[in-house]
Amino acid sequence: xxxxxxxxxxxxxxxxxxxxxxxxxxxxxxxxxxxxxxxxxxxxxxxxxxxxxxxxxxxxxxxxxxxxxxxxxxxxxxxxxxxxxxxxxxxxxxxxxxxxxxxxxxxxxxxxxxxxxxxxxxxxxxxxxxxxxxxxxxxxxxxxxxxxxxxxxxxxxxxxxxxxxxx
Length: 167
Fold this sequence. Notes:
Shape: globular
Helix content: 25-40%
Largest sheet: 4 strands, parallel
Order of helices and strands: EHEHEHEHH
Structural class: alpha/beta
């Protein structure tokens, strides 16, 4: 099983969408149990919760939101945390931050997505932005999941994940 950690600044939208989508796609796949997704933020605000529109879009897509919560990446940097095989930043702010030293030195990649919660657009426009982001994340995750097993070996995983950033 490959453990994948999605990082963003606040862990309320893009990283939450990514965690839920990968776990959903894995559960629905012909070979479930190949991937396990997590998400975290570099600096979630005190009391931060997943964005309500992120949860709404996931629920309307039939994707479970059970157990989703905003959390600090510190939860995954300790020796007692699950071992990560791949860490993917999904926002440009988190990509430029100095990350903790992750146990086991996992592969890393940056898959940038625009923040669907940014700005003061009407709710329907924001909902559409969240839906668009979820679909973009889903397409890229399907490419990752459909890679042959040899492309997911630790020695190739980083190059493989980084090559998907152009999709």
